[in-house]
Each structure stands twice: as structure tokens, then as C-alpha cells.
Design a protein that fits this description.
By secondary structure, the protein is an alpha/beta fold. The strands form 3 sheets. It has a 6-stranded parallel β-sheet. Strand 3, helix 2 and strand 4 form a beta-alpha-beta unit. It is globular. The termini are far apart.
Length: about 425
């Protein structure tokens, strides 16, 4: 099998891993080197969900010793197998880079023989790129759960970002679908990477030229829809990962049914793309808007509202917090208003120091008044002629496609239940 046949197999096998994004690190080539990395992001290739990036996203091998039921590369699956040698993959990366096809490498792997052996092959690939070919472009490497910490350390010194995929949200799900993996084997390297990053940050303060351990941080990925885990459980786990392991990102991947198994959704089941989208929206609220997971969802409402985004849903369920006056409300309260984002909230806080804001000035600053007008006032005044009704607020907070879905469901299934807010409409 030639190297391009391998490339076709191993790039296709890597498409289900979405835990990659912009590089998150600024780095220029040293004298005699080639390649650079920009924190603002990279593009020109495509991840599994269609986002444009310019990483060569590939597996070292798809010949796996594990038999995870949800994975296309599982040991028992009858698929064509291939493996790169470290030299082949390093040469391929450099050839693609010189042709301006890519700006970096996203390297993962199935577990060939055992975690240590797999990790050693990945290390050798990165060593050739960094030390022999003097490649200073962006490299995202997957840590292999179960590999020795010394190997994880070496891999982290060669890469810019690392990730350990948690894959499934609970130990019970792992026991059922990935019996070769355990929560400990996944979280142990995650904790090790976090500690090394912290130690490295201290060393850099003392020694500015000290080698950097994964300067762009670490991330992880969870599969959504393969198990009965609720949105509430997934979101709480996400918040815990950010707090305990200082992750840069948690990525969510809607499960694509590819395996016939009684423990998995039917093969003809559509991927839960909307659910994945809602999780990303909620993740954004946790990271940038100051929300806690148990504010967005709770024990009584463990699933996202399919018609409106999590922020709007929170606002509708907490109308006692509104309206707020944009000329006097704290920054933290402004962030909770539908139609006001982080950048706009900062603009409001800055501009109102000099003069009082009105609705026209808010619109010019980027506030989406179609949504925000139901939750704000300007110096005690509401929007002129505004009529507030449940139906009007719902329409304002939903996209056009969501309005269509909502009223179709409302007319065809009067017993449909989602949240208490919609129950009130049915009275």
C-alpha cells in the first residue's frame, strides 16, 4: 500500500474527531526553520462538522487493539487497516506544508499494540518534524490514555496543544460501550498535563527561553447521543472539567450511527446536530457569560429547549430579574440579556460613562433589539409602542426555522411537553 492510499484511509478515519480548532498560540520559525503558527486561527481544510481549518487531520493508524462499540476503528469492525511509519507521516506533512495545503498537523491514533507503543510512534513523528525538518508550525497531538507519563511529557514538549478525549460522559457508559477504557485512564493524563502546564508557566517566568509544554493548552471531546446521558449531566461534567483541569475547550460531537448494536441508536437514526449546537451555546455561556451549569439546566429540566437557545430560555424562566436599566445595570447583568453579547456589554459600560444611552444608540452599538427590548429599559423608559405578550416574546427569541418547527409541533401534538414555559401556553 503506498503512502497516498494510507492517507485516504487514515484521514477518513480521523473525521469523527472534532477536538480541533484555531491554534491558540503565536509562534514564528527560528533561524533555519520552517513554518509558523498564529493564535487567531487557521483555515482551508474541514473538520467533521464542516468547519474550515488548515490542519492535516490524520490518524497514525486505524488498527486498534480496543473494541469500543461506537468507534468505526474498533477491533471487531471489518474495515481496511493502514498505518503510517513516523518518517512517512513527517514527510507527508512537510510536502503538504510546502505546497501551502496546510498550516499544521492534527495527529491522533488508534491504539496499536498498546498505549506506550502508539505514543512512541507519535513522538518519533513529531521529533522528526521538529528536530530534523525544523518545522515550527502548529501541532495538535492526542495523548493516548494509559500511556506512561514520561511519554506524555515528551509528546507535550513537541506539540502545541494536547487533548485527551473523554468520549463518553459517565463511567457506566464507558463500561457498556468502551470496556477497554476507564475514567481513571482518561483523567490521569488530563491531570498530568494540567500540572505540567502550571509548572511550565512558573518556569517560563524564571527562564524565558525554557522549552514550553503544550503552550496552547489542552482540550477534550465528548460524544453526544450514543448513550442515555442527559444534557444536564453532560453540561455539569463540562463545567467540572473546566474548573479541575483548566481545559481550553470541551468539544461535543453528535454521534453518527455507524454500528449495529443493541446498546447503540439504530443505524438509520439521524445525528443529534441541534443538541450538539445547544451544548456549544451553553458551553459559551459558561466560559464567557458567567453562567453556571445548574442555572442553564437543572434536575427538573435536564434537556435543552429545542426552540430557543439556552440564554433566551434562562431569561424566559427568570423574568423576575427583568427589565434592567442599561444605563445603570452591572456588566454581569447586561451579559444575561438576550441580544447583548460580551463585546456589546463592554461597549455599553464604556459609553454610558459619558452620556445616557437610548434605544437608538443601543442599536448602533450592536444590541439585537428584537430580542433585548423585552428585557431592558433606558433610564426607566421602554421601547415606544412595545406590546409584550408570551407569543410575541417567543417569536422574537426564536429563529424563523424554529418558529416553523414550534407551531407545527404545537398544532399537531397538543400534549407535547418540553418546559414549564410552554406548558403555560397550553392552558
Amino acid at each position: 500500500m503506498d503512502v497516498f492510499d494510507k492517507l485516504k484511509i487514515l484521514t477518513d478515519a480521523a473525521k469523527y474527531d472534532v477536538a480541533c480548532t484555531s491554534s491558540g498560540v503565536n509562534k514564528k520559525a527560528k533561524a533555519g526553520g520552517i513554518g509558523s503558527s498564529e493564535a487567531c486561527g487557521i483555515c482551508h481544510s474541514f473538520s467533521a462538522d464542516g468547519r474550515c481549518i488548515s490542519l492535516l487531520k490524520v490518524l497514525m493508524t486505524n488498527a486498534c487493539a480496543y473494541d469500543c462499540k461506537y468507534c468505526v476503528n474498533r477491533r471487531s469492525n471489518d474495515v481496511l487497516r493502514a498505518s503510517f511509519t513516523p518518517r512517512e507521516l513527517a514527510d507527508l506533512t512537510m510536502n503538504f506544508y510546502r505546497r501551502n495545503y496546510i498550516e499544521g498537523l492534527f495527529l491522533s491514533s488508534a491504539v496499536l499494540k498498546n498505549p506506550d507503543y502508539t505514543c512512541e510512534r507519535m513522538i518519533e513523528t513529531l521529533r522528526i518534524l521538529r528536530e530534523e525538518y525544523r518545522f515550527f508550525g502548529y501541532i495538535h497531538a492526542k495523548a493516548i490514555p494509559g500511556a506512561d507519563s514520561n511519554l506524555i511529557s515528551r509528546l507535550g514538549m513537541l506539540g502545541d496543544r494536547m487533548s485527551v478525549n473523554i468520549e463518553l460522559p459517565s463511567q457506566n457508559s464507558l463500561n457498556l460501550l468502551a470496556p477497554d477504557k476507564s475514567k481513571h485512564s482518561i483523567l490521569a493524563p488530563m491531570g498530568y498535563i494540567k500540572n505540567r502546564i502550571q509548572e511550565n508557566s512558573t518556569d517560563i517566568i524564571k527562564y524565558r527561553n525554557a522549552p514550553k509544554f503544550v503552550p496552547a493548552g489542552q482540550s477534550t471531546q465528548m460524544i453526544v447521543g450514543a448513550t442515555p446521558d442527559t444534557d444536564f449531566q453532560i453540561l455539569n461534567l463540562t463545567e467540572g472539567l473546566y474548573k479541575k483541569y483548566k481545559l481550553k475547550r470541551v468539544f461535543f460531537s453528535a454521534y453518527v450511527p455507524i454500528s449495529k448494536d443493541s446498546l447503540l441508536p439504530q443505524v438509520n437514526t439521524k445525528p443529534t446536530i441541534l443538541r450538539e449546537h445547544r451544548l456549544y451555546q451553553a458551553d459559551w455561556l459558561i466560559r464567557y457569560y458567567g453562567f453556571r451549569a445548574n442555572e442553564i439546566l437543572d434536575e427538573n429540566n435536564q434537556s435543552f429547549n429545542p426552540y430557543i437557545d439556552p440564554k433566551c430560555n434562562w431569561a424566559l424562566n427568570h423574568m423576575d430579574h427583568f427589565p434592567i436599566d442599561v444605563n445603570y445595570a452591572p456588566y454581569e447583568d447586561l451579559l444575561r440579556v438576550p441580544g447583548i453579547g460580551v463585546t456589546t456589554a463592554k461597549r455599553i459600560v464604556t459609553v454610558r460613562r459619558n452620556f445616557l444611552l437610548n434605544f437608538n444608540s443601543l442599536k448602533k452599538m450592536g444590541v439585537v433589539l428584537k430580542r433585548a427590548q423585552y428585557f431592558i429599559i433606558c433610564s426607566g423608559k421602554v421601547v415606544e409602542g412595545l406590546k409584550i405578550s408570551q407569543d410575541g416574546v417567543i417569536r422574537a427569541l426564536m429563529s424563523e426555522s424554529a418558529v416553523h418547527r414550534y407551531y407545527n409541533n404545537f398544532n399537531s401534538n397538543p400534549n407535547y411537553e418540553q418546559l414549564s414555559f410552554f406548558n403555560n401556553l397550553l392552558l
